[in-house]
Queue: 2 jobs
Job 1
Amino acid sequence: MTQNQTHDPSGLSQEQAKVELLQLQAQLIAADQAYHQDDTPILSDADYDAAKRRYQALVTAFPRLQEIATQLDTVGAPVGSGFGKIQHVVPMLSLGNAFDDGDVADFDRSIRSYLGLDANQPLAYTAEPKIDGLSLSLRYEKGVLIQAATRGDGATGENVTANARTIADIPQQLQGAPEVLEVRGEVYMSHEDFAALNARYMERGGKTFANPRNAAAGSLRQLDAEITRERPLRFFAYSWGDLSAPLGNTQSEAIERLHELGFQTNPLTQSCASVAEMIAHYRHIEAQRATLGYDIDGVVYKVDALALQARLGFRSTTPRWAIAHKFPAELAWTHLEAIDIQVGRTGALSPVARLTPVTVGGVVVSNATLHNEDYIRGRDNKGEEIRDGKDIRVGDWVQIYRAGDVIPKVADVDLTKRTGEDVPFDFPETCPECGSPAVREEGDAVRRCTGGIICPAQAIEKLKHFVSRKAFDIEGLGAKQLEMFYGDPDLPIRTPVDIYTLEERDAGQLAKLKNRSGWGDQSAANLFAAITEKRNIALGRMIFALGIRHVGEVAAKDLALHFGSWDELAKALDLARPAALAHRSADMAEDQERAEANREGRRAKIKETREAVLSRLELHLAAREAWEDLVGIDGIGATVGLSLSDALANAQERAVFDDLVGHLNISAPAAPTQESPVAGLTVVFTGKLEKMTRDEAKARAEALGAKVSGSVSKKTDILVAGPGAGSKEKKAQDLGIRILDEDGWLAEIAPK
Ligand code: IVH
């Protein structure tokens, strides 16, 4: 031990302390191993004790080091009240799905089309089992495991470091790894271990787990790591996150490298040179499924070359370069005991089948979806027969279909089991929750309650959506609490604004509710703190949280990026309102014209009808421009535009939105992290591009913080015009917009 190491560590910087701690940690681990396993000590007792004391002193002086400290004496360590949060440096994404061979061929085609490769050019993939467990990200710095995080919502996960350390397949230390290495993979439980665990619990009269995945998830997410230690969890590595140096040039090389570093990688991983080889390997894996000893639910294909993966990049939640080819669904027969109608956030009446519980692929199913009234009648959304036109009746013997995590559905009916007393299902035309008329619009498969937020079911579902993980994510305010608050006579929450006025309306009432609903001083204070914390919110999340029909997470982000603030968005929608209504009238006239023409056996002159309607309405130019700007945003379109316009024009809803905004600090979308000359600019691509496909051009521009629009307007900053550009180029010239050819654009975005 050097002299320095016995000194008070408080003079060090956090970074110096961390480096020293990691060095000491490596030394202590090596010393422990030498002493306990190899019987050949490498440190004297005195040096060992000194190192240990210094180690403890560093953690006491720098409490944040606790997260990475593995060699603390755990006895008496404080037990956390929940898991801490960890922000993923590289988001943890999910995978798109393929359900049949055709989907796999489409996947290959779309990749080739994105990269501009023809069908004959070589393109290699890897194929490997999709493990049915839960994903985990392991962060190693200087070869030492310092953090383990669950996927969470993909951006933020839970800190399960202490639990991950108890898993034998997860190395605590790596030799020769890059300085920073995040290894990602799946935690799972084998069939054998699962059966033994359940048998043990059954003996003790305790609760058992429904399947190995639930058992693995429940075990990893134990607040007491000692319980995790008793559960036999395993880990397969298949991917990575943050890295200081590449692991190889291809997926296969990278996986091989992870294997060499000491991780379990799946032995059924294979390189494939074509779709035919991918499908052959899928069949090979499928044939072994029952004897593998652990659950898999499909095969994952990945583009092998990492340079191509980088070019392909990501959609909002899934990579373009990978897909999961799922195994076919599981089926089972049971009795349909009742059909209930649930009313959703947007008023949709959804029929739910209540079933005599049945096991489908290892999971007990007692509810299944019946989609909508046509589905019950035996028709699809075009009025064509499904199930040979057989309708579904209460009392029927029905077949249940379950594929992966998707909600089970009723797939078929056995008519031979009917008693003759059953009657066709009478779908309600009024809302079962509020009694308002439930109407079905032309072309919509769904019947909807017209009660809006006076319908308690819609209001509660909207509130649940508002506080959900991808929206405001308010801890301690979930479905159960919202249902209680909604009907509370003294302290009701009926709109999102009520959440933000809860504390000022409370006056100590909540803390007194101890007996009735479990609230005490502490839990009330925690709730208020959680609500206050979420006064700071990103614009995209806030728009998504409003629960406007068709405005999903991606559309909300696109809107936030385009408008930059709630005021700008609201102003633009107010301005565009007459044009939105005109658009709807033109749509209706168009439908009518088409129907008449059909009846008379002639072709409809849609364009003329549309133009005639629009010109009769004499739209203000500003309204038309605002509407075109809105629906021109890539990924938005008339359906989202109209729904948004209706929501903001509805006086009741608008009052809530405007009021809510007053309670929040809304942040504009963050500027892209890298320096980018085109960040914030609106770009339009037209004509033929020769060096990359249109999709790739768009994705790259967006990754650099540009907005890509489909139409030229005053707001366009750059038009990238390839050969064959037409009216868009002319319009850009008239408006004096900067026009670049493809090379000019590439020079513009090249790193300088
Ligand atoms: S690759 C960027 N490979 O499936 C995508 N995922 O449905 C990285 N999973 O969240 C994922 N086995 O938890 C990949 N061999 C495998 C997998 C696998 C299981 C899980 C993973 C992911 C989910 C998506």
Note: DSSP finds 27 helices and 24 strands in the chain.
Job 2
Amino acid sequence: MSLEKSIAIDGPAGAGKSTVARMLASVLGYRYVSTGDLYRALALEVIRRGLDPYDEAAVLEVAKSVSIRVEPTVDGAQRTILNKEDVTEEIRTAEVDAVVSPVSVYAEVRKHMVEAQRAIASDVDAVMDGRDIGTVVLAESSHKFYLTASPEERARRRQRDYARKGRHVELADLVDEITRRDRVDSTRQVSPLRPAPDAVVIDCTTLSPEEVVKTMLAALGRIDACFTLSRNS
Ligand code: DC
């Protein structure tokens, strides 16, 4: 069954989850799913409607009335569709970063999101990244990882991501933003960010993505797939 075979990757913002999740999915022939993109699309709609992200009833109303889908792309990435509009680029802005954690704290909102994510993983073997994948979404999976890295290193990685898009963002601002998001994500009452008891914890501060994926493949008993990894990278 896909829910048991699927692989959970959790961790704080900027730990490198999406990069390694995509690589791992590619070498194993699984579908890569970024669950944060679903919450980001919801945050974008809250912004567009001019609503207060701290107004639970308003956010829930949005969650119930919008259509949010994620689709795999041919190159192993993911496209996010909000009410038939492709918002893949628009959900990766500082404005969305600022609103996404507050809209993700509500139990009823999360129920909707978890159902959508479980529906994907019951259809297809997936490598899913997020905050509650090992603890909630794929609780029955026997393949769980929790990635961490120091806040400074995570902020540096985010700064490089922005630089690739031609934007300069001060490192100190990114450290602040990441620390604030960590706090909201890990102290919320419903499904807080934390490693599942059976997750393999990997500190990625000084590891390259290839090294992290090799560690994961070893833990999965799939050292054989390292060959595909070296050929792809
Ligand atoms: O993975 P990301 O940084 O794009 O996620 C954005 C936010 O979405 C994150 O700060 C908290 C929320 N999120 C969540 O609550 N649960 C998930 N499974 C994934 C993301």
Note: The beta strands are 7-10, 31-34, 68-72, 78-82, 85-86, 126-130, 144-148, 200-203.
